[in-house]
Amino acid sequence: MSIHWLANSLNRKFIFGTTTGLVLSSLLFLLLYLPLYQAELADERARAAWEINSLLQTSLENAMLKRDLPGLSDMVDRLGQQEGIASVFITNPAGEIRFTSQVGMTGQKLPRPYTGKTPSSQFIENAQGEEVLRSINPVTNKPPCVECHGPVTDNPVNGILYVDYVAAPLRNQV
Fold first, then answer.
1. Would you state the torsion angle of the CA atoms of residues 24, 25, 28, 29, taken in this order, to the nearest 10 degrees?
2. Rounded to a whole number, what is the largest CA-CA distance in the chain?
3. What's the rounded Cα separation, in Å, for the pair 93 and 77?
4. pLDDT digits (tens, 9 = 90+) for 10-45
5. How far is CA 120 from CA 5, 21, 135, 163, 171, in A?
6. Which of 44, 82, 134, 149 matches a 20 to 30 Å C-alpha distance to 51?
């Protein structure tokens, strides 16, 4: 009966066709927009992580220049306890963990140490099986660091700062 009702009026056919077209095009745009929105949220989170890491890196470099290793260790511990952060650790260029917010990780070696020279952020699964946004910042050798770390040409990177942000809030926001 409803097909007969629709077939009897040109106006009803037009309304039905227009409504169907709007619904289908809305769904199509939603399907195209959703991955772009997710990528934008991930990029924004990575940018925020980079800004926090830059500030932390400056503080850590200052502590290292003053040779305040207990202060550096304490700073890493306290940052690792912040809400939204799963862990923080600093490795040497070979991937050996030198400072960490996680008990028992000091001295362990990463299976795949970061070898890049520029900051990086990526979603990974950590050793506990949790998804995290890992922000990686190489700490480059600078003239004030040469006294302890040797010439910049021989040792371009002094260490690598890793900050693992809990990914669940970002995924929930999406």
1. -150
2. 91
3. 21
4. 777 788 888 898 999 988 988 888 788 777 777 776
5. 61, 43, 6, 11, 19
6. 149
